[in-house]
Write a structure and sequence with these properties.
alpha+beta; Alpha-Beta Plaits; 5-stranded antiparallel sheet; 32 strands; disordered N terminus
Length: 497
């Protein structure tokens, strides 16, 4: 699309450039493609091969999000459903939660990325590999994105999904305040000559088989290091020394597939948007991996941002819609930072912290504390502040079984194309929703049964509900409610746009 800056006319190569093809960038690319937006991914790796066992699973809300796009079965077939939720190693059960996916999915990051990349490939999104974003310059009409091969891409928007050391964030001048590291861990995937001690350690970390089905090597090792600021990149010698210090033997560790380290450094971008540049995933928030929340939070960032960015690019919504991305996701990221810091503190291996941990474990054995904590960690309890009204507003829509003229279906099946949805449970028709029919799908439906939400329990069934593409409820009530046209206009544009 031609754009004018001063006396010069520039042509955009794409609608959106996404820096980084990890889980967050891939999910964002898929969301934009479903909305008909021309996005391209820029990725330094030659293929989608990653440190396979770096992250280990998907939480319940992330599985719901994938279900909303019709691809959850691909992930469920590749992993193991189990109760993986925990707080500082204290197991937490969510099997009684009101969701079809009342479990976690044990699945290594390598498989998660592979499946997302396959989906994005089916949607036709190009990935520019063996290149990195090295900088950018934005103006009133778009962004010039500089790549490591010397080329420049032009796009109306750039999204940094390029990790905790994000070049995009730094180039945009976005502050990254937080807390420096106090603890460092080695993480590696290695073979061992001797069978190791499997399981978690008192101070966190431990040893486990990469292949959860068959056991045996290779093994995933996560161990604390004696010093926080270790010089250089970690090596096999570092892994062996850490094993010997923790277990009295290095188990004959050899043939590493990969070795890395992480710390408890905790930081969050002061803003998720700077003009035409946005951040998602680790580029927006970094924290230790306790609770396995990083990958899941990033994927959910992408689903919140994608449809909003698409509407702004299409011109159906003003750019101010993008401000709601920061307003909604920044508090979620801040909460993740707080609970991971608390979990790190509880992992300190001494008697005082053990006493505190035992006290917390007894509290989490009670129903209400457990449910609140699980709702927070799993993402099921996320509530965006979208104003007053029905208790559904701002919360995830339950995946109800529905009836109707077109036969039985369920809510998430109606969201596969990432289009806004107005569900009417009253008399068919009866409301003029121009100019939104081409933007919002109207469905007359029936539902028998109770409506239940995590933590708050049963809620009254509304006569109609307006669902955003990310599965959160924008409005609920009676079709005669004068707030409905306001909600439609606020989230999905007005006739004047």
């Amino acid at each position: 699309m031609p754009e004018t800056t001063g006396a010069a006319t520039r042509t955009s190569d794409h609608d959106v450039v996404i820096a980084g093809a990890g889980p967050t960038g891939l999910m964002l690319a898929g969301e934009l493609a479903l909305a008909g937006i021309d996005a391209t991914l820029v990725e330094r790796r030659a293929s989608q091969v990653v440190d396979g066992s770096r992250a280990g699973g998907l939480h319940s809300r992330t599985i719901e999000v994938l279900d909303q796009r019709g691809i959850a079965d691909r992930f469920l077939a590749a992993g193991q459903t189990m109760q993986i939720q925990g707080f500082a190693g204290i197991p937490l059960d969510l099997s009684d939660f009101p969701t079809r996916h009342n479990y976690g999915l044990a699945l290594w990051q390598g498989h998660i990325e592979r499946l997302l990349a396959e989906w994005v490939g089916e949607l036709g999104v190009p990935i520019l590999r063996e290149r990195e974003v090295t900088g950018h310059t934005q103006d009133d009409a778009g962004v010039d994105v500089r790549l490591s091969d010397g080329s420049i891409l032009r796009a109306p928007y750039l999204v940094g999904c390029d990790g905790g050391r994000s070049v995009v964030r730094k180039a945009a001048g976005i502050d990254f305040p937080g807390w420096d590291a106090t603890t460092s861990w080695l993480i590696a995937e290695v073979e061992m000559d001797q069978e190791p001690e499997i399981g978690m350690r008192r101070e966190g970390g431990g040893i486990g088989p990469v292949n959860r089905d068959t056991g045996g090597g290779p093994y995933r090792v996560v161990l604390k290091e004696p010093l926080v600021d270790q010089p250089g990149e970690p090596t096999l010698r570092h892994v062996r020394d850490a094993l010997a210090a923790a277990y009295g033997t290095d188990y004959g560790a050899h043939s590493p597939n990969w070795i890395s380290r992480f710390t408890d450094a905790t930081r969050q971008a002061a803003a998720y948007r700077a003009g035409r540049v946005l951040l998602a995933g680790d580029a927006a928030h970094v924290h230790p991996p306790q609770g396995g929340q990083g990958l899941n939070t990033g994927v959910q960032d992408a689903v919140n941002l994608g449809w909003k960015l698409a509407q702004v690019i299409r011109g159906t919504s003003p750019t101010s819609l993008l401000d709601t991305y920061h307003a909604e996701r920044h508090p979620v990221g801040a909460q993740v930072l707080r609970n991971t810091m608390a979990q790190v503190a509880l992992s300190t291996p001494d008697d005082r912290h053990d006493a505190l941990r035992e006290t917390l474990a007894s509290l989490l054995a009670m129903d209400e504390p457990r449910r609140r904590t699980v709702a927070e960690l799993s993402g099921l309890g996320i509530h965006y502040d979208l104003g007053e009204g029905h208790p559904l507003i701002g919360r995830r829509m339950p995946d109800l079984d529905l009836g109707g003229a077109d036969g039985p279906t369920r809510v998430y099946a109606l969201l596969h194309n990432a289009r806004p949805l107005l569900l009417n449970f009253g008399e068919p028709g009866g409301l003029e929703i121009s100019p939104w029919p081409d933007r919002v799908r109207w469905v007359d439906a029936t539902h028998d049964g109770e409506w239940e939400l995590p933590v708050i329990g049963q809620v009254p069934a509304p006569m109609a509900v307006l669902i955003r593409p990310d599965g959160h409820v924008a409005w609920a009530g009676d079709l005669a409610d004068p707030e409905l046209p306001h909600a439609l206009g606020a989230w999905f544009g007005t006739a004047a746009l």
